[in-house]
Design a protein that fits this description.
Layout (H helix, E strand, L loop, with lengths): L2 E3 L7 E4 L2 H11 L2 E3 L4 E4 L4 E9 L10 E10 L2 E7 L9 E10 L6 E7 L4 E6 L4 E5 L4 E3 L11
Antiparallel strand pairs: 1-2, 2-11, 3-8, 4-5, 5-6, 6-11, 6-12, 7-10, 8-9, 9-10
């Protein structure tokens, strides 16, 4: 497993270079909020990134306070990007639920899929797993803790 964690105060910084490391990053970004305008692909540099409001699961207890932080989730060695149901509405907010990796027959390449609540997905065809997560600044308190068990009316 290749994942590197550098803690600077309460700021989280992770680097993943294999599927086990990617699973750790996926857990750290579960329930992150992202607006469509904060999703970027640079074909020239072969990078894909999202600026997210990350729920800090590593600090969450059973009761408040809970915290979020602004973070960047970056992917390198990206060959192509495909998306489904990404809103164009500037007020839309997508909730990132999971990040999955499907290897190709010839490692280390494959497809990384970002799975959002609802039908939204973004698939990255990558040469290899090279993913970073970095909190950008101080965290702020939030009253709400994501609850996947809560039943909706």
């Amino acid at each position: 497993m290749a994942v590197e964690n550098v803690m600077a105060g309460s700021a989280l910084k992770l680097l993943a270079e294999d599927s086990d490391g990617l699973a750790i990053i996926a857990a750290a970004v579960q329930d992150s909020l992202v607006k469509p305008q904060d999703i970027k692909f640079d074909a020239r540099s072969r990078t894909f990134g999202l600026e997210i409001n990350r729920f800090q699961w590593e600090r969450a207890g059973k009761r408040m306070p809970y915290f979020r932080s602004r973070a960047v989730l970056g992917f390198s060695a990206v060959e192509t990007v495909r998306s489904r149901a990404v809103s164009r509405d500037v007020d839309a907010v997508h909730v990132l639920m999971d990040i999955r990796f499907a290897p190709e027959a010839e490692p280390p390449g494959g497809a990384i899929t970002l799975v959002f609540a609802g039908e939204t997905q973004i698939q990255l065809k990558v040469e290899c797993i090279d993913v970073t997560l970095a909190d950008l600044g101080p965290s702020w308190p939030t009253r709400r803790k994501p609850d996947h068990e809560k039943k909706r009316p």
